[in-house]
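Hey, I was hoping to borrow your eyes for a little while. There's a protein on my desk that I can't quite get my head around. The fold is given in discrete form, as structure tokens running alongside the sequence. I'd be grateful if you could look everything over and explain what you see. Here's the protein in full, and shout if anything looks odd to you:
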Amino acid sequence: MPVILKNDYRPSIFLRNGHTNTLYSYFFRKRKLIPWCRIRVNTPDQDFYDVDWLKHTDNHQLVILLHGLEGSSASQYINGLAPILYDKGFDIAAINFRSCSGVSNLQLDMYHSGYTKDLSQFIDTETESYSTVVICGFSLGGNVTMKYAGQSGTNINPKIKAVIGVSVPCDLRPGSARLKRWYNFPYEQNFIGSLMKKMAHKATLFPDIVNMKNASRVHHLWDFDDYYTAPLHGFEDAEDYYRQSNSKQFLAQISIAALMINAQDDTFLTKECFPYEVAEEKDNFYLMAPKYGGHCGFAQIKKGMLWSEIVITDFILDKTR
């Protein structure tokens, strides 16, 4: 029963708050200058996404990193973890979801919490030289990771040895509803501002499809998903999008080692995002739910590595021996 109750994350008093822990690493952690090699991957639907690589010579172990909503390979959690795993001997592929590499994608659709087709294509076409692959996703990227692994089930590519999700909103509907709370207002408005800029650009490319008249009605992420994410990606509405895209419904079908790290004080997550029952029933599914950590935080003021980075690294090393 791999519900990991042991909690050795003991942050300073300053970080024992979901907001301060979320924001500390974002604002105060020193970013590393990473010598990424960017490679553009063309997709079957005449689009593309950009992947930033760190490669050794003749290496056969790869970690794929997936960012969160409106993040990129420059996000602090990617920037921090990538060099740590690279120093442990792994090649790194940080996938920038469509439209997230600083360049707008070409097609109408972009990416969303259940958008697994680019990850699937990447594994099928870009990992031929690797015998061992691990996928680690953060927030939205964590949901994509877990959904992909669960939907693949026992048919998952045998080179994939483990999947990891950090701060995963695995039940999207209550998570989106919680973002409406006043204490999440700054985060939500930041997301909406970034997404609406992309929609404005999409409207110039697809004026008959993207209706910017609805922009004034978007006050919450739920609204954005209702007016834009859902119709542009083939869903009926936000409810339908959340229902089809949440990874929680697929967790029990994951057939390989899986680790989910969700902090209890994460202001983005609700109780539905802590799948204790799955972890209790599945020998391969590990759930860590520390009391503190915020959203993609897990900061340690006196140490260079985030607590989550230590846990992730140890888990990957254990599952790839």
